Amino acid sequence: MRRYTKGFVALTVSIAAVACTTACSSSGSSGGGSAQSAYTVWDPYPQYDANSDWVKLLTKCGTDAGATITRTGYDTTDLTTKVLLAAQQGTAPDVLIIDNPVISTLAEAGVLASSDDTKLDTAAISPNLLGAGQSGGKTYGIPIGANTLALYYNKAVLQAAGVDIASVTDWKSLTAALAKVKAAGKKGITFSAIGTEEGSFQFLPWFWGSGAGLTKLDSAEAVAALALWTDWLKQGYAPNSVINNTQTTSWQEFATGEYAFAENGTWQLGNAKKAGFEYGIVAVPGIDGGTAAAPTGGEFVSVPLQKDTGRYAITQKLVTCVGSTDNSLATVTALNYIAPTEAVQAKQVAANAELKVWVDAVKAAKGRTGDGLGTKYPKISQQLWTAVQAALSGSKTPQAALTDAQMAAAAATK
Amino acid sequence: MIAPADVVMNLRTQTHATRSVDGPRGAAASAAPHRPTRGTDIRLYHRWAAWGFLAPITIYLIAFYAYPLYRNVDLSLRHYTVRSFVYGDAEFIGLDNYRTVLADPTFLPALGHTVVFTVVSLALQFSIGMALAVFFAQHFRLSVALRALFLVPWLLPLIVSASTWSWMLNSESGIVNAALSLLGAEPLNWLTSPEWSLASVTIANVWIGVPFNLVVLYSGLQAIDPALHEAAMLDGATSWQRFWRITFPLLRPVSAITLLLGLVYTLKVFDIIWIMTKGGPVDSSTTFATWSYRLGFGNPLPAFGPGAAVGNLLILAAVLFGLAYIRAQRRQHP
């Protein structure tokens, strides 16, 4: 065996060298080698196939701009990593549609081109929606549509419990309504407090509705918000399963017809119609009344950086086409979103009066990465959902959980 | 008892050896006239042919094992931000990521959970698998059908079994709590209380691991000569004695490899825990595997460096146990 060693090493090295050369040359050529008219689009809508309105719209916009579109739909949780890897290899797509809180991370990574380079017109977009795509004074894309959270309620359950929905205006009256529902033998409210970004997303309307801010997680207001949820669990107004609920499983609980309220998003409207009971929607109330600011959800159309900056001209036409007033209405209707511009929002309400409450909620909503948080948001959010889990599962008091969260968040964002 | 088997082995290796030696010798004999030049040619040719045959596996090993492993070690020694991940200019920081991970408040709980999860899973999987294997070794009616049923957990995709467990253990609508309340017991928050979450994922993992232990140990049992049991029975050994004095010792090599494989599988269990509890609530069911994933991928802002560091610690643990196994093997067969 020993006498082979030398030759073996030499062979191994030469193979490695060959492998490296081929790999290097292939990754080097991928930037400029492709045909000028082929453009790639990545989106987080794998549920839409080539026959869907969404993909047809993309193809049509491509043809108008003089490009052939290759579109790939990825699972939304995979897309961030996919894009980072692609950018590392120099194979990022021309157009990337991605969840809004990720924009600041990708901008920080130097993956996205700002509107300065791509010449995108963002004037018509509502500022509170555009905020999620802004970082360091630059804008990195346009929202394709927005969604947010509100409270769905089951009319029959409330009626049986003797609750008038008009009386639910603040946290106190909401908790009182939940008590009545429980006394009537039904279940109060369901939401999602899972240990992921979804958990923070669902907690934020209450967090912001108390007057708390993300830069100080252990403020008295924040503790009040977390205590509200914790007490609901203790009193049995909310089921213990919320700790593991995603927004989908939480919706499934509401769809059983046993629950009075469910905190959920615009995208459940289609399912609400199929639920088989009468429902209504109210905005999440603030601690002393009024509408709490809910976080904005929804994706941004962004443009990853390309070596060949000449490509931006056609990309810009493509993005503008997708975001134009006529096409935007079609897109947001297909995706169950609220449009990012007032003009299209008005058209949506004219077509479907039920959307009024959502349009109002979107107007009151704010971006998670706004307030200059940017890439600090993911780190703060992780501590926030951990604190929510700790308090709801009873391993810490709301005060202790948030104090620990603030310490960890401060250390992580230093 | 061992002797005949050894003889067979020797015979087999010998025939192999003669056959492989035969080939080249025959070729050399036919080329006898040009011996001086042809001989070296052929030797050279054979050597290159050997390398040629080695090349595919070498390339495969380097491309799919050595290089990723090297990258993971490299990843754990650099300070990666999202920006440096894309532009590849991450600064070398030595063992800082490991220090960060060791100082993290999650480290000790995760270590404890990994140990408890692995040890309890292995112990239960192995003892239940062994009990079932011994049970099924006595052929009776329907034994084949029943044994096949026990394999179902193994055949199901993990996402299916984990989702099913998570649905069964749901605090509100789970069938387990419904059964408990039928029996008059208090329902438990299986997945959502810090006291029970680790137990819940362990139970699910044991259920998934039993078939593997059953199959391997069962086939191990088939290799034990029934004559031994007969002889022992004639000598008046009880079934309990026969198990501990005959079956168990003779199964030792099979048991060792079953436990080692089980250990490696269990150390890296990720999907079951992630689907059922996401490692929570708080860190109550976090193991190294889920922690590594959460650091690297479970957050919109990935921490690749510490994530890779945790992954490497896990690999190191598996390698250490592998080496311990090899040592134990050597001691058994010097």
Description of the structure:
The complex is a heterodimer of chains A (414) and B (334). Chain A is of the alpha/beta class and 414 residues long. Chain A has 18 helices and eleven strands. In chain A, helix 7 packs across helix 8 (171-183), helix 9 (197-209) crosses helix 10 (220-235) and helix 9 (197-209) packs across helix 17. Chain A starts with a helix and ends with a helix. Chain B is mostly helical. In chain B, 76% of the residues lie in helices and 1% in strands. A two-stranded antiparallel sheet of chain B has the order 1-2. The A-B interface holds A 7-8, 11-12, 15-16, 19, 80-81, 84, 87-88, 101-102, 105-106, 108-111, 194-197, 239-241, 243-244, 253, 256, 375, 377-379, 381-382, 386, 389-390, 392-396 and B 47, 51, 54-55, 58-59, 62-63, 81-83, 85-88, 166, 170-173, 189, 191-194, 277-282, 284, 297-302.
Write the layout of secondary structure elements.
The complex is a heterodimer of chains A (414) and B (334).
Chain A: H1 5-29, E1 38-43, H2 53-65, E2 68-73, H3 76-89, E3 95-99, H4 100-108, H5 115-118, H6 127-130, E4 134-135, E5 138-139, E6 142-143, E7 149-154, H7 155-161, H8 171-183, E8 187-190, H9 197-209, H10 220-235, H11 247-255, E9 259-265, H12 269-274, E10 279-282, E11 299-302, H13 312-323, H14 325-335, H15 342-351, H16 356-364, H17 376-392, H18 398-412
Parallel strand pairs in A: 1-2, 1-3, 8-9
Antiparallel strand pairs in A: 3-11, 4-5, 6-11, 7-9, 7-10
Chain B: H1 2-30, H2 35-76, E1 78-79, H3 82-87, E2 91-92, H4 96-103, H5 107-137, H6 143-150, H7 152-155, H8 158-168, H9 175-182, H10 197-222, H11 226-234, H12 239-250, H13 252-267, H14 271-276, H15 288-296, H16 304-332
Antiparallel strand pairs in B: 1-2
